């Protein structure tokens, strides 16, 4: 009897404990776990948002810095500064007959638009109005080779010239000591980037190391035409006992000054060099063993080609004519 009562009491205690445990789980433990998960998720989202905000601040700082390197938010102001700046660069290096021009702003699209693997939806978003446009301009002038090279170097040093798009150097005059320069550049026009302050652009001097390189190149005078060495005729003494042999005209000197080395290429098949005739524009591509006039190509590397003429080897550097060749020492094996 007592045992039965004990079991009944124990069962009641277990039932009460089970009910209380169920109430605890449903009313407290489960909601608490959900709240903790939501708190962790909120903290993670907040951290991600803070990271994105920091990135946004970095982007804003970069946009502001880019705007400081533009020529102003108004196109009229930007246009005048662009022309004046290009003219000032050429004048600072002593060029003459200077002309400057530029075109209209050209919107720049994102290059990802042309990538096949980019989703169509992203391409559509990238086709929205461009963030900035490019204004392309050019400056022309005439001067010595050193002045022309220093003009290019000075343009590279300017923060408001965002890209050197190309240049051409053409020797002029009989002595070819002066050159015509055409320098093509581009600057960014971004009114949204350059809002607020509108300071005058800063004119920067060229890098001193680049200036030394320009001077060294100009000293070599690669465009100057070299005169061929004079041919001294040899007169033999007459032999009174023998009839005088017929006179043989002296061999005509080779026109070495007409052929200029314009390039050296190291390809899979070996070295190749390129020569151009300055009179008629003819071009030749030579591999070792190839010939231009009586000069046979032996080897090439860097900016130098080694040719053999009458059993002697000579070096010709890129931009020089065969007339400006220099001795290269003993004959090398091919």
Please characterize this protein's 3D structure.
With 334 residues, this protein is an alpha+beta fold. Helix content is 35%, strand content 26%. α2 (75-92) runs antiparallel to α4 and α4 packs antiparallel against α5. The protein is elongated. The mean pLDDT is 79.
By DSSP, the count of extended strands is 13
Biggest sheet character: 5 strands, antiparallel
Order of helices and strands: HHEEHEHEEHEEEEEEEE
* Gross morphology: elongated
Strand content: 25-35%
Uncertain spans: none
- Mean pLDDT, rounded to whole units? 79
Give the quaternary arrangement of the chains.
single chain
Helical proportion, percent range:
25-40%
**Cα gyration radius (Å):** 39 Å
Name the structural class: alpha+beta
Q: What is the terminal separation in angstroms?
A: 121 Å
Write a brief caption for the model.
The protein is built from 5 helices and 13 strands. It is α+β, with helices and mostly antiparallel strands and 334 residues long.
Sum up the structure in keywords.
334 residues; alpha+beta; 5-stranded antiparallel sheet; 13 strands
Topology:
Layout: H1 2-68, H2 75-92, E1 96-102, E2 106-107, H3 120-126, E3 133-144, H4 145-157, E4 163-172, E5 178-189, H5 208-220, E6 259-267, E7 270-277, E8 283-286, E9 291-292, E10 295-301, E11 304-309, E12 312-317, E13 326-327
Antiparallel strand pairs: 1-3, 2-3, 3-5, 4-5, 6-7, 7-8, 9-10, 10-11, 11-12, 12-13
Helix pairs in contact: 2-4, 4-5
